[in-house]
Design brief:
This protein is α+β, with helices and mostly antiparallel strands. It is built from 7 helices and 5 strands, in the order E-H-H-E-E-H-E-H-H-E-H-H.
């Protein structure tokens, strides 16, 4: 068994580098692998997604496992902007609602190793801060303080335990 990890744009993997050169020498049908990656990452169009390809070298079979895009990529998708601010402390590229923050936190919670959805929400807010994104019209630092004070507990609790 050999395992490869690639970062691909959702739904747009190709047989070119890095996938083709890595898998071609193993005698796999690279186009089949690429097709499978694109099927599994189609929902992440416009975002870079980590993909793990496990190859059984003897049987010439493969499995594709898709990770989740980065928190920053999910924020960018929610805001429909191209990228975060160049100077996050001075520039604002958008505003997330509490619902959007919770949605991203649910997607990323497992990857973050966050024990609670509330902890994941604070982590997403931290990423938003580094990108020049406000939450509920407030600087993320203020939002995080409010989360810590329990201002959003009821709303967060409603989503705890729900799958993304």
């Amino acid at each position: 068994m050999k395992t490869f990890t690639f970062l691909v744009e959702g739904g747009k993997a190709t047989a070119g580098p890095p996938i083709g050169p890595a898998l071609g020498p193993l005698g796999l049908n690279v186009m089949q692998v690429v097709k499978r990656i694109n099927e599994l990452t189609a929902d992440y169009a416009g975002m870079r997604v980590p993909v793990k390809v496990t190859v059984d070298v003897e049987k010439k079979t493969f499995e594709v496992e898709v990770g989740t895009p980065t928190t920053a990529a999910l924020i960018i998708k929610e805001l429909k902007v191209e990228k975060g601010a160049h100077q996050p402390s001075r520039e604002n590229v958008g505003n997330l609602t509490l619902q959007q923050v919770i949605k991203i936190a649910k997607i990323k919670k497992k990857d973050m190793g966050a024990s609670t959805l509330k902890a994941a929400v604070k982590t997403v807010a931290g990423t938003a801060q580094s990108m020049g994104v406000t939450i509920e019209g407030k600087p993320p630092k203020v939002f995080i303080e409010e989360v810590e004070k329990g201002l959003y507990d009821e709303e967060i609790r409603k989503h705890e335990g729900e799958a993304a």
